[in-house]
Amino acid sequence: MRMIMGLDAPSSGGVDINGRPFRQLPWPLREVGALLEAKAIHPGRSAYNHLRALAESNAIPLSRVDEVLGVVGLEKVAKKRAGKFSLGMGQRLGIAAALLVTPMSCSSTSRSTASTPRASAGSAPFCAHWPARVAPCSSPATS
Question: If one looks up domain 34-127 in CATH, what number appears?
Answer without folding.
Answer: 3.40.50.300
